[in-house]
């Protein structure tokens, strides 16, 4: 899950900087991570709730495709809330995800480049 958390944070900074190529990459990484969890971690009970995140990921991806910053922020907030809802449903309510307030890595430029 730490990988998903890192991609979640990088997704935020890509989206608020209108770096739609990077945002698209990060949402793809998150989707891929959840698919891997479903494929590999089949014996863990919390895997049964992973599908609750998929429609929200699609909503964020749609905002990215539309290059709509306002819709991105709205759907990102929904994504974050859904992460926390899943954590609560699985008795991991102590793991609260928030919108990042600081860059997740110091060696990456989140501004769009040609």
Summarize model confidence as the mean pLDDT: 95
Separate helix tally: 4
What percentage of residues falls in helices of 4 or more residues? 55-70%
Class of secondary structure makeup: mainly alpha
Tell how many strands the DSSP assignment holds. 0
Please tell me what the overall shape is: globular
The profile of the biggest β sheet is: none
Q: State which percent range the strand residues make up.
A: under 5%
**Low-confidence residue ranges:** none
Report the end-to-end length measured between terminal Cα atoms. 31 Å
Whole-number radius of gyration?
Answer: 14 Å
- The H-and-E topology, N to C, reads as HHHH
Task: Describe the structure using short key phrases.
single chain, 114 residues, mainly alpha, 4 helices, 61% helix
